[in-house]
Amino acid sequence: MAETDQVEHEQISTSLEVEKIDVNLFRSKSLWLPLRARGVFGGASPATPIIYSVERIRDGKSYVTRSVKAIQNGQIIFMMLCSFQKPEALQPNHQWPMPQAPPPEECEYQEEKYRRLIAQNGDGMSPKVKELYEAIAYERSRSPVAIKVALEHDVSADGIVRYMYWMRARSIPKYDAPFQKCILGYASDLQFIGTASRVVGLRRGAKEGQNRLGMMSTLDHTLWFYNNDFDFGDWVLYVAHDVVQIDCPAVGSGRAVVTGRIYTRDGKLIAVAAQEGVMRADVRPPKQDAKL
Length: 292
Description:
By secondary structure, this protein is α+β, with helices and mostly antiparallel strands. Helices cover 18% and strands 38% of the residues. A hairpin with a 2-residue loop joins strand 12 and strand 13.
């Protein structure tokens, strides 16, 4: 069951944990209901536990593959394909370097940014925009993942638009590597498909028309890990003091594709992400005059 008044950063570890009820069968312990949302994170109903059914696809010497179906009220609401690999430390390594970005100490928390915008421009804002900014600031301050904007709408010489964010877990105990990956997988969806809306200038608070965001939702999400040596909850050696660089290759037909790379603070590449999502402008066809 979901608790609508729970503080997310105190519940996130519980929300990610599952209860084993049979061989290859698990059940959610707690579902978190985001602020102003109709469903839990991922869109499912907050009233019913989610059952996770695991199918063992392949067990090889170096790789194993699992299929996971999330089921609620007898319907599949989510499917995931997981591939696990034994470490191969002696293999050659290569990574794209972390791009230049200001250190997190010089960047502003997202909640502080929206509070600053309200303080500076609140008198000139419409009530709906002000309410939206207040809600975003409130939700970001309660999130288990703190976010600071490192760079917004950076356009490279070849025309690629990039956004960079510093991300850090607020108060998560030290876990082993598999659970760290679960938490990072959760965080990798934050601020991701929304990059595409910003690339084309869609905003939730805009007036009705071409630049008003009508709907945005994830269709599919892929994450490739290349580093197991990180701690998403350690405030000192924290890998979540990382920068997520997001590119947006394409937007069209109400869909968008974004890609990203997640680095540790000292520049080690942790993971590469890609996502496609629904992104629709609130555009309505012109009214037709009634015909006699």
